[in-house]
């Protein structure tokens, strides 16, 4: 099969790999309209090659906006080089014409870890784990906002990938990302339960929208629940905001649990700062990193990405 189609050439995206048929792959994740699969690559020239994650548009959505989003995500991801952003590996098509984005593989999403913790009867993440996630995401957002002038546009736990025992924290899913200089609130897609109040109203659209979403992700780790959605215990974490779609609390700042101990004080301070209703009162990603440094939290960079 020749993967170098005219459409792929027009997109200026690498297309030098042949995606295996879906039945041969193990699904490791999913999102609205897409699924993610694990690909173990064969050795090349007697060298072991790193595995990839393949994101494919589901068959029922192959002629929809999700194809366009995947192309957009591939174009954006190809230009991003940062230890706290998932690495781009390639872009191609299946035999039946569906787009495939290849990325570095990570262990699990933060959303899955939150769901597993809830199912195991835990009440919240430990403060050191939460601060590690905050630091990793803030570093990724500082790069996006300041160097690339991009709004991620869909910060939530299922779009954060974890390697090992929180050794590496990486942002993923850039399908609805927007240029900060030119985009308006009408262009914003996001996910309602994590959206900042101004994105649900008349704007403006700024980098502080991502910061509010980060704050709600902190709340997720403190409660093991989906923010701003009232659901029964029988509804799972991962589908509560999709299937129930209760929007009356979107954009709110949810209350924190009343039993947090003093070792969560820094986490609470950052949460309250990030989720200010007035966007001008929220910190930048740089501000969050400065606060962590002042508190003595280590901000060592993650190991460099493997580009095999």
From TrEMBL:
InterPro entries: Kinase-like_dom_sf, Prot_kinase_dom, Ser/Thr_kinase_AS, Ser_Thr_kinase. GO terms for molecular function: ATP binding; protein serine/threonine kinase activity. Residues 1-20 are annotated as: Disordered. Pfam families: Pkinase. GO terms for cellular component: cytoplasm. Residues 1-10 have a biased composition (Basic and acidic residues). This is Protein kinase domain-containing protein.
